[in-house]
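user: Please review this fold.
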Amino acid sequence: MTQGGFVGRIAFVTVLGCIIFATKMLGRQSGRLNDSRLASQKMLYSSLGDRSGHNGVHNNFAAAMQQFLSNLRLGSKIHSNSGNRQKSFITAKRAMTHEEAEALVRQWQVIKAEALGSDHEINMLIDILDEAMLVEWQALADAAKAKSCFWRFVLLHLSILRADIFSDSFGTETAEIDVLLEEAAELIDENQQKNPNYYSTYKIRYFLKRQDDGSWKFCKADVDNAS
């Protein structure tokens, strides 16, 4: 009996040690992920704040926008309510008309310009965005407002490449819209003699979710071939 109790205590200590070790490893992995996202956000805000050089598309404003587009790609990999994970429950698929898809994307472009524009209409973002996109663009708009500057966006070209609607086993509808965008923007700062400008053509895939009232909201975006 004494020997059996001794062996039991050894087994208990061994299992407890494994649990503590596993907990520490998970904590370290979570910490590294959070540190990575914080570092990306700091780079974005730092680029927005430092505008000492202005040489066309290769200035700090353009770098900030490119960093933000990169953050969208990062966010698409770690968010749970998006893309391929939703598709595992899909039961039906149908095409969205290009007219409807274009109207949605243009509505988003208008609201984006208002939120980051001179009036800083940040509250409008919730009308068209949700989940990851809402968090990312609110942070960017808040940073611009805090620094008392604003962006003047110009949509040069918009082309719908693909638009599909998916239904899952729970009756939830999602959509994917592939778009080719060409846009330009200028950062307006009264303290600068020359305002930096930005130009980019890129492909982007938007993920949307149908709301209870029947409207659509953009939840995530994957950027491809940003330039």
